Each structure stands twice: as C-alpha cells, then as structure tokens.
Amino acid sequence: MQQQARDEYVRSRAYEIWEQEGRPDGEHERHWRQATEEFEAGLAASAEVTNLPRGSEGLASGLQPGGVTPAGGPGQGADSIGASGRRGRGKGGVV
Fold first, then answer.
1. Minimum mean pLDDT among 12-16, 35-39, 44-48, 61-65: which range?
2. CA-CA distance, 29 to 10, in Å (whole number)?
3. Does the residue 88 lie in any domain?
4. Both ends of the chain: CA-CA distance in Å?
5. Is the four-CA dihedral 37, 40, 45, 46 of positive or negative sign?
6. Position 56 in a domain
7. At residue 5, does pLDDT exceed 60?
8. pTM of the model as a whole
9. What is the rounded CA–CA span in Å between residue 32 and residue 11?
10. Number of folded domains in the chain?
11. Contacts of 43 (CB under 8 A, 6+ apart)
12. Could you please report the per-residue DSSP string of 27-69?
C-alpha cells in the first residue's frame, strides 16, 4: 500500500514538473528524481513531527520548564481567580 502511494505521488509530481517546465523532451529522469526526492523529504519532515517528545498525556502536556507542574494545579496560585479564600484582600476584594 505505501509503495503504491509513493509511486502515485512520484508519477503525478514528475508529470506536474514536466508540465511546469514546458514539457521538455529528455528530462523525464530528472523530473522523476526530483519528485522522488520531494516525496522522501516530505517523509523525513513528517517523521520529525511525529517523533517530537510528548508528555505523558499528549503533546501539550509538560509545557513547564523541566516538566515542573505549578503547585496546586490550575487556578490555585495566590490571588488567582480560582484561589480559595481572599488572601491579602480586604472587604469586597479591595486591599
């Protein structure tokens, strides 16, 4: 299956290159080679993307430097919206 997809891409891309260059005679090997190189470069690029290090729960996890998780989790920092209590605030939330 992968070989068929590769061959179809290379065939189609080589034809596209041939047309873009004005359909020159005798350049088919160069067009085929260029299309093959483009295909392989695309595979290499997608392999780099799929091999990125991931956190334990997916790509977006572990965004803190060194894998540090903020203490208390989201919204638990001092004076954050999700913080319990009214630390450092007077009546009505005004200091």
1. 61-65
2. 12
3. no
4. 68
5. positive
6. no
7. yes
8. 0.48
9. 7
10. 1
11. none
12. -HHHHHHHHHHHHHHHHHHHHHHHTS--BTTBTTS--SGGGPP
Q: Is residue 95 part of a domain?
A: no
Nearest to 36 by CA among 21, 17, 49: 17
Residue with tokens 């047309």: 19
pLDDT given for residue 43 in this prediction:
81
The answer as to whether 67 is a domain residue is: no
Structure tokens at 26: 């005798």
Residue-wise pLDDT tens digits, 63-79 = 555 555 555 555 555 55
Task: Tell me the residue type at 64.
Answer: Q
Range of the domain at 22: 2-50
Q: Are 74 and 53 in contact (CB under 8 A)?
A: no
Q: Position 80: which residue type? A: S
**Which residue is listed with tokens 């004005």?**
22
